[in-house]
Every structure is written in C-alpha cells, then in structure tokens.
Amino acid sequence: MGFRDALDALLGTTRLPEADTDRLFAISTATVTMQTSLDMKPSGKAALCFKPIESSRYEAVRTEIEELLQYSCKETGSTCRLETDTYRFTWVILEDPDFEDLVAGIHLVSQTLIERSFGTYLLCAVYAFDGTERVYWIYNFKQGSYYPFIPRTGTTRDTAYEFRLRSLMERELPIEKEVERWYPLWGIPL
Questions:
Q1: Which of 43, 147, 165, 166 lies at 20 to 30 Å from 174 by C-alpha?
Q2: Contacts of residue 119, Cβ cutoff 8 Å, sequence gap at least 6
Q3: Domains (ranges, CATH) in the chain?
Q4: What is the DSSP string of 85-108?
C-alpha cells in the first residue's frame, strides 16, 4: 500500500480500482487449448456486467452503448441485448458463433464505459463454454484476471472441477490466484 492509498484509507476516501482490459483478450488464444485439450467449446454467448449507475449521464452512455452494439452487430452478425437483473446490475448479452466477435464486442462495451469515466462500475465479463457441463470463465475487471465458475443445482458449485481447470489453464490465462476472489455469479443470463 502506497502513501496515497494509506492516506485515502485513513480519511475514508478510498478510490475504487479502475477496470483493467489489458488481459481481456487472453481468452481468445486460450480457447484453442480448451477446445483441443479439454473438449470445451464456446457456447456462442458472452456477457458483460456492470453495477447500477446513478448519474444523469448514464442514459446517454446507455444509448451510446446500444447504438455501438447495433452497429457492431450489423457488421459481425451478432445479436445483443441489455438486461437488468433483480439486483439492478446491467448485463450486456452477446450471442455469436464466432468467439472472436464476442471478445471484441465485450471489449468495445468495456472501453466505452471506461472512456466515459464509468470504468469503476465494470464488474466482470463472462464467457460460456460447453463440455461435459457448462463452464463460465469470468474476467474480473478490477483484478485483471480470470477464474472458472461451474454452478450446480441450487447454490452449489463444482469446486473440484474449477480447481482442475485452474491447474490446466494457468499457463494460458491470467488466473486469479486468490481463490476467495472467485465470486459465484448465480443466475448468469446466458
């Protein structure tokens, strides 16, 4: 912790970490390994989640995101929609059989939010993969890292398989090292 961070903590004015998109594209190359070695195929669905934004500028940004997505979707053939869940988080949901288009779409939306000073509201990007079961690779924007999430019925998860995926993919993806940051996302709209 640097001096500025310590001072902010003492004064109660800690700043939220900015979103990190530098490692977002690592999933593109890791997909090859997932397909060939793990028999996991991209489902053709991805999503980006961000916190509720209480700002008069939000409606203008939301309109811009929708316009960018409509234009991008025309170019790539993707489909897209925005949903708000029961916790008021906004989900940008993309569908496209071309995985590269999904990654580019997620990047486009996240960069738009960052450029409009809403980067601290970005929570995660989620990529769905199908194999023996549905696997979600979650990119935590604050940490700049991925982790696997495999929900089961109710609110249980397959942690054994998640740990196995970590060990198999840590050379391919920037995996979150602190397991307590592997937050479960129940009710992912994919």
A1: 43
A2: 18, 19, 113, 141
A3: 20-181 (3.30.70.1130)
A4: -TT--EEEEEE-S-HHHHHHHHHH
